[in-house]
Write a structure and sequence with these properties.
Elements (H helix, E strand, L loop, with lengths): L8 E8 L5 E8 L9 E4 L9 H9 L4 E4 L15 E3 L5 E3 H13 L3 E7 L2 E3 L20 E2 L4 E3 L5 H18 L3 E5 L6 E3 L5 E3 H15 L4 E7 L4 H4 L7 E4 L7 H14 L5 E4 L4 H4 L2 H17 L2 E3 L2 E2 L3 E2 L9 E2 L2 H16 L1 H4 L4 E2 L1 H4 L7 E4 L4 E3 L6 E9 L2 E8 L22 E5 L8 E4 L7 E3 L1 E4 L2 E5 L6 E6 L1
Parallel strand pairs: 3-4, 4-7, 7-11, 11-14, 14-15, 15-16, 16-17, 23-24
Antiparallel strand pairs: 1-2, 5-6, 8-10, 9-10, 12-13, 18-19, 19-20, 21-24, 22-26, 24-25, 25-31, 26-30, 27-28, 27-31, 29-30
Length: 477
Amino acid sequence: MLLPGLPPGGYGVDAETTDGATASTAVDVLVRPLERLRYGFASDFAPGRNPAGLALHARRMHLNAVQLYDWMYRHADLVAPQDAYDDALGRRLSLGSVRGVVEALRGVGSQSLAYAAVYAVGKRERSAWADAALLRPSGRQWQLGDDFLWLVDPAHPRWVEHLGAELERALGATGAAGFHLDQYGWPKAALTLDGREVHLERAFPELLSALRARLPEASLMFNNVNDFPSWSTASSPLDASYVEVWPPHSDLSHIAALATQTRAWAPQRPAVLAAYPSVMASAPPSTARPALELLLATAFSHGATVLATGESGAVLTDPYYPRHHVAAAATLELLRRYHDLLVRLGDLLVTPSTEITRTHAGGINEEIAVTAPGVAVATDALPGALWLRALDTAHGRVIHIVNLAGQTEAGWDAPKAEIPVVAGAELRLRRELAGEPVVVAFTPDEPRPQRLAVASEGEFATATLPPLGAWTVLLVQ
């Protein structure tokens, strides 16, 4: 069956067989490939690597961009002089395998973004960049690890020229669509050999602008480590906003705040959070999987996506991506369901919206109310409560319910109790305009729209909600 041309947006695809079996997936139609970014990772570039499993996983999770992590020969010399080489940590890699990964991902509609650090040189290159070194007040150079990487001024003119040339060379050698540009979150300010002050919140945007001018067609992303310096890179010519999450951003409320603030800094760009749920590798599945589910529900309900999965079926649990966690079938099914709903409801989740939670719900507000037998409802991420968020969008009023009932804490990387299904919840709406409200519910378990019966009495309309799992999306029109 051929579908007609579709306008931009997200679409659900539902099928039913003659004997009643059903299946669902989703697709989106985009003007710009990364405007609704769903980001994954690849970290295996060993000689002879077969990328078929990676490509299948990317298609299954609707990943439209994949970070090629630590594919390079050296941090300051990206492309190896021969096909097979050892990287800076001694891993045996192959340029042929990198190209094979890029080609396989392109075949399933996913861009490859090659990793590149923006201010790091190895020990053997250190002396050549002494004039650009980032120094502490003591005169000691900033470094990562023990004699591993040494940091230089990212806006030093000679370094800007060198890095730009390396990136150009890497595009030709790999066929990648662009770059994931990394920093380490420190220092925030430093000195150079001649005593000049370098403020990284100003140096990074200067570098990013120069790289965009040199690579006008490349997709570019920059890592704002622990939200630094998101305020200054928001105006940089990038294709997405990316924040790597570290303490003290430890709670689900911090995930929500990072997502909304990142979207606010640059509303025209998609927002991606790199939050590494180490709990997936350290806790039993019965307590780890609910933590992953609540992390996804929180980020998705606040307009951001999560760099959570990649390779041939893995969850990212560590900042060094080769140390990922191979996911069980149940975890992969959870990820698939959440990404399906993310694509289907893209028009509601990742497009511009107006936050109305604290003006319309909770406290003295009567416009939106959710009640549930024996369970509190809150407009904050409170353990033991249903967490309510409300937004106005171009398609109607959207209400998110994230289920923290049964939890005793709200850390995003901590084992969680089984998420209880909350039955008997009701939505009450103040009727302010003519006509009856239409209420439709969506969940990762039942992505197809469920139109709810609405009963009106006086100024209020009430709908009984379906059983509430981890995340429920309500559309009120």
